Amino acid sequence: MTVRTQAQDLSAPVIAGDFADPSVIRAGGRYYAVGTSSEWAPHFPIYSSSDMKSWTHAGYVFDKMPEWTSGSFWAPEYYFHNNTYYIYYTARRKSDNVSCIGVATSRYPDRGFRDHGIIVAFGKEAIDAFVYNDNGQLYMTFKAYGLDKRPIELLGSKLSADGLKLEGEIFPMLKDDERIGMEGQSILKKDGMYYLFYSAGNCCGSGCSYHVRVARSASFKGPYEKQPGDPLLSENDYWKCAGHGTFVHAGNNELYYLYHAYNKQSTVFTGRQGMLAKLSWNGADGWPTLAQVATPRPVSAGIRDEFNGNTIAKRWQYDFRNASPVVKQANGKLRLSGSYADRNLSGVALAVRPASAAFEMETTVTNQNAALKGLVFYGDANAAVGVGVAGKKVLFWMVKDDKRSVIDSAVLNAATPLQLKFAVAADHSCRVYYREKAGGWKELGAGSATSVAFLPPWDRSPRAGLNFAGEAGMTAEFERFEIR
User: Fold this and answer.
1) Burial level of 321, CB count in 10 A (0-12/13-18/19+)?
2) Is 459 a catalytic residue?
3) Which of 42, 122, 149, 414 has the fewest CB neighbours in a 10 Å radius?
4) 183, 319, 459, 479: the active-site residue
């Protein structure tokens, strides 16, 4: 990836692209952040930084989903205890599709996590874990009743010394009396008072209303008094629906809050991006305040993957519910094949998280067979748009409302090598192009743009990348992938 930066401002995220519900920890002089992956695998991306402003992708918590899970990998939470890194995470239980909280541990913050299964199962859902050490006693806190016809509550329970099971009775901490939504809690102690920061409102989608509030109590178990007035974080000129973060101590003993927000221009097409705020204790009556930290604003950023080496870059993900890709990389080429569910009309998508609503991606297809091989902008198995070559024909295709259609096609003089380009505009429309050897770019689609506004699912951004759809034994072979 190539990134050039200029003066710092408030328009840039610290972690660009879809990185919701972030949790952050400091270890060995570096910071590590983990975020929601929803229905994309590998699960729970981990980023690393020396300054909390410039981050690099370090890996994932799970390469394969734990045996007990079926999907919806949300809200991972870092915790360090007894020389062990814990990640408490939300996922749906395979047996009944109920969201529960699981736990995984490692000796390292960025790799080697071993799953220990479910730690919290409560009613119709238990999500958004946060662990707090109160004078040597560990506590688990979580959100409950989000699917019940009653106010949401944040609940707590004692946690065992090894951090792997609940102990004692579950107790209430804070109730959503306003019935607007409550989740994503994080707790600090200051001058004998416990401060419970939480996110209120609707988390996701174009109609979101997320914002950060705080309540305080002289006792960890409550009762908590909610701060009156405006939220600590809500929106500014560039960002909206701020929320669901955790705190970390910087080397200068300052506290920072890593959270997510939607960019007001690109919104759901870039997802909930990683943001940073600084905590101060300068509010009225001793209440805290949060202020977004200005960060370097990229003036140009992109990805260029030449497929060097024998291991694919960490950025690539796939829809694990609907496809099982087989990926091999060698000699400057990436070979993509695999199987996919019958209900999946889009094939195998190997994709990356866009950092902008407007972008172009390109690749070169270097092999010939009857399989479809090309580029895809993928929201879900039933919502995708792509361009690819099959045999000696190039196809501009769409999957929408569980129906697949070909928008346009052309017969090629020679099937390979074939360059493909997929361009997305800021108005959420796309155009696609192809170029044969020694020729110029030609557009499919009768010279008119095609809307991709239907692509984003409710909780995640669409992904852009490579596509394969074909029979067993076939493969797609690509040379270079670029997004800019």
Assistant:
1) middle
2) no
3) 149
4) 183
Token duo for residue 69? 């899970």
pLDDT in tens, 455-483: 999 999 999 999 999 999 999 999 999 99
Q: What is the pTM of this model?
A: 0.96
Task: From residue 478, give the alpha-carbon distance in Å to each of 90, 366, 405, 444.
Answer: 35, 6, 24, 21
Q: What is the pLDDT of residue 289?
A: 98
pLDDT tens column, 251-270? 888 999 999 999 999 999 99
Burial (Cβ within 10 Å: 0-12, 13-18, ≥19) of residue 394: buried
| pLDDT > 70 fraction of the chain, expressed in percent and rounded | 97
Distance between CA atoms of 142 and 173, rounded to whole angstroms?
10
What's the first-to-final CA gap in the chain, in angstroms? 10
Q: Which two tokens stand for residue 472?
A: 């067993």
CATH H-level, domain 2-300: superfamily:
Glycosyl hydrolase domain; family 43 (2.115.10.20)
- Cβ neighbors of 212 (< 8 A, separation 6 or more) are 197, 198, 199, 200, 231, 232, 233, 234, 242, 243, 245, 259, 290
Does domain 306-483 fall into CATH 1.10.240.10? no
* Catalytic residue of the set 21, 77, 115, 436: 21
Cβ-contact 8, 294 below 8 angstroms:
yes
Q: Cβ(470)–Cβ(340) under 8 Å? A: no
Residue recorded with tokens 């205890």: 81
| CA 87 to each of CA 102, 110, 321: distance values in angstroms, whole numbers, following the listed order | 8, 11, 23
**471 catalytic residue (yes or no):** no
Determine the Cα–Cα distance for residues 35 and 77; give it in Å rounded to an integer: 8
Q: Find out whether 304 and 480 touch, Cβ atoms under 8 Å.
A: yes
Q: Which two tokens stand for residue 84?
A: 């062990």
pLDDT band at 300 (very low <50, low <70, confident <90, very high): low
Return the domain boundaries, the chain. 2-300, 306-483
